[in-house]
Every structure is written in structure tokens, then in C-alpha cells.
Amino acid sequence: MSKRKQGKPSPKAAPPAQPRRRLFGPAFTVSLVVAAVTVGYRLHVERSKAQPKPIVEHRVVSGDGAPSRFAPEVTVLLEESAGLKLASDQRTELEAIAQDWKQTSGSLKADLDRETERFREYADSQVGGGKADLTEFQRRAEPALELGRELANLKLQYWQRALKVLTPGQREHAEELRKNTLSPANDRK
């Protein structure tokens, strides 16, 4: 029989394998994983905060009329005085409200026109050169948008004031006028 079969080790054989000694203990490994997850989460939170607000490029308006917070000018009621069957005292009150609207809104409309023109000039200068920055466009448009909102709110106040002059039946007719005046279908004509 050979020496190998008897169980004697050969001089070239490797020593018996010992269990591998770990470089790090389990507590250290767990701490390292927790630290990595924490750092990753903090980076995620920081990047989320740094993102700019989303930009709405367009809005879809339904065709069923304008939302109730928008109103036409009071002169729409005067133009439809025959359809509304206005009494002379109602007509006089509506004319006074319309005159007050004209005086009150005049300077606001002029400011809005001026800001709109200022923005239009900026937009034309930027688009032509191919160096348009959407964030800067929004910042420059904000004064005109704010004046537009202010004018719309003021118009709504005058519209509501004018509705108080009308009877309930006339108010229903006025609501139909408002929807027809402000509907997207009429804007396309």
C-alpha cells in the first residue's frame, strides 16, 4: 500500500484549513451599513429640496363655461339690457357701477399694459437670440401676472356688486351671459 492511503501526510501537503478570521466584527459592519443608508437618505433629501418648482406649460380649460371666479365687465349687462328687461332705476345703478369701474380700473389697466409690454420686449429680445431661460421668463412675467390677478379680482367684485341690483331671474340670465362671454369657444372666434 501506498503511504498516502495510510493517512500519513505528505511533506508537500498544505496544513489543515483553519477558520478564516474576520477583519471587522458584526457590530462594526452593521454600523457601517446604517451610516451609508443615513448618508444616502440625507443626499436624497437635499437633492429633493434643491429641485425647482414644476412649470405649468399650458392649462386645459373645459368647454362648459368659465369658472365662477371670473367675471366680465359690468358693461356686458348694460349691452344686454333689453334681454335682461332692466327697469330704468336698475339701468341707472348699473351705469353708475360701470362708471365707477372705469375710473377705478383705469390706472390698473394702464399698469398692466405697461408691464405686459415690458415683458413682451424682454421676451422678444431673448427668443430671437436663442438664449431664452424659462426661469427668468417666469420671473419677468410675474409683475404682469400679479396685476392681471388683481384686475380679475376687482372685476369680480364689481360684477357681484352689479348682480345685487338685479332680480333673481335677471341674475340667472346674467350668469348665462357671463358663461357665454368667458367661454373658451368665444375666445377662439
Features:
189 residues, mainly alpha, 7 helices, 66% helix, 0% strand, elongated
End-to-end separation in angstroms reads 110 Å
Question: How does the major sheet shape up?
Answer: none
Shape: elongated
Total of helices: 7
Could you state the order of secondary-structure elements as H and E?
Answer: HHHHHHH
Mean pLDDT, as a whole number? 76
SS-based class: mainly alpha
What is the tally of beta strands?
Answer: 0
Helix residue percentage: 55-70%
Radius of gyration: 38 Å
Strand content: under 5%
Residue ranges: pLDDT <50 for 5 or more in a row?
59-67
What can you see in these coordinates?
This protein is mainly α and 189 residues long. The chain is 66% helix and 0% strand. Helix 4 (88-129) runs antiparallel to helix 5 (134-163).
